[in-house]
Amino acid sequence: MPVLSSAVAVFDPDLTLLPAVAHKLDFADHGAEVPVHVHRKGQLILALHGAVTCTAGNEVWVVPPRCGVWIPGGVPHSARATANARLTYLFVEPGAARLPESSCTLSISSMIQEMVERLARERADYTADSHAARLARVLLDELAEMPQERLNLPISGNPKIRAIADALTADPADRSTLRDWAKRVAMSERSLARLFIRETGLTFGRWRQQLHLVVALRELARGETVQNVAAGLGYESVNAFITMFKKALGSTPAQYFAHRNSPHPAGMTAD
Questions:
Q1: Phi and psi (nearest 5°) for 124?
Q2: Which residue among 171, 195, 221, 231 is buried most deeply as judged by most CB within 10 Å?
């Protein structure tokens, strides 16, 4: 089997001072693991198909269709893509747009997605008076208006919290209680509960639910069935999983992905 190249090696956005450049990647041609790296430019990662999970700072972000993870310039990050992932990267020169100063997930309109794909077909040395330059300016203005979504999982450098996070990431179906975990990491249940809130901003129960949501979005985007995802997360029934998903994101998994994959999602109409 041939060794696939890293997605980082195929394009260096920092070679240009242009306000925005874009690049499209099909992970069938590259290794799924993108090692820790950093850009001078900020980076927006868009999933056209499949999904990618990014780690930046002390948080994990999932990128399902119609969303993008924004990573400001200078922030080390890594990623892991599903085998069917097709992504578009938008790289933004620092100060070129009013974008968040910290990593976040942004909702992405179909118009922005199409503009990013169009910019990806342009050379990375377009001139300031070109069509590509005008497209980039409008794109950055529109992107700055996009709302944020809560598709992140806070993690921590604390060794005890990180040990629990690593174990549950490897086996998200593990239903051990906070008391069980406290015994394993040699802490009292009350002390561990306080530590979780201090390190992640969430209670243990809310943190584990957010982990399940991140895993579910990744697996559903990869093509897994709702039944398999629910079982893989340890839910006693599919309905219990769907209830959790709908409470978190406002729609069932089927409705969520039908909306995300629609060429004209809510708020966007055909001419």
A1: -85, 20
A2: 221
